[in-house]
């Protein structure tokens, strides 16, 4: 019964986000690659009028239910980014995490992913020169 209830919650969340029921089934997260794919579907970088393109990486963990565990942490931002660029991208990353959680883990993936940190890169530039990285 709990499994059915979880599917209904995921389907309801997808409907609220404007996603069809068929797509909700496709959105099940069963591998580590699926986590990254799922998060990319929620990513909306700030428009160029608000911030210059930059790369940003966040480390985040999830519990078995697919909710964020603890606090996501920004671990990388492009070095040439201004304070405004960083702020706009940090907001966009947190909004993407909100849109994508709870992560629709399969039962197997829920056990495998729970408590593990994932470094999720959000790339928005054509190239990322390694000599100009700014670690935070």
List keywords for this structure.
136 residues, four-stranded antiparallel beta sheet
Helix count equals 5
Number of domains: 1
Q: What is the general shape?
A: elongated
* Estimated share of beta-strand residues: 15-25%
Mean pLDDT equals 81
Unreliable residue stretches: 1-25
In the CATH classification, which architecture applies?
2-Layer Sandwich
Biggest sheet strand order reads: 3-1-2-4
Biggest sheet overview: 4 strands, antiparallel
The helicity comes to 40-55%
* Strand tally: 4
As for the CATH topology, it is Fusion Protein Consisting Of Minor Coat Protein, Glycine Rich Linker, Tola, And A His Tag, Chain: A, Domain 2
**End-to-end span in angstroms?**
44 Å
Class inferred from helices and paired strands: alpha+beta
* CATH hierarchy class name: Alpha Beta
> What Rg do the Cα atoms give?
16 Å
Order of helices and strands: HHHEEHHEE
């Amino acid at each position: 019964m709990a499994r059915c209830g979880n599917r209904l919650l995921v389907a309801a969340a997808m409907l609220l986000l404007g996603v069809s029921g068929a797509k909700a089934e496709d959105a099940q997260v069963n591998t580590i690659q699926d986590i990254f794919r799922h998060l990319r579907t929620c990513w909306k970088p700030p428009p160029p009028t608000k911030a210059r393109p930059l790369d940003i990486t966040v480390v985040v963990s999830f519990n078995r239910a697919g909710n964020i565990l603890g606090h996501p942490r920004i671990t990388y931002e492009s070095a040439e980014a201004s304070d405004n660029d960083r702020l706009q991208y940090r907001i966009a990353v947190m909004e993407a995490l909100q849109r994508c959680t709870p992560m629709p883990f399969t039962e197997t993936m829920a056990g495998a992913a729970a408590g593990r940190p994932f470094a999720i890169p959000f790339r928005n530039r054509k190239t990322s020169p390694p000599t100009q990285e700014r670690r935070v």
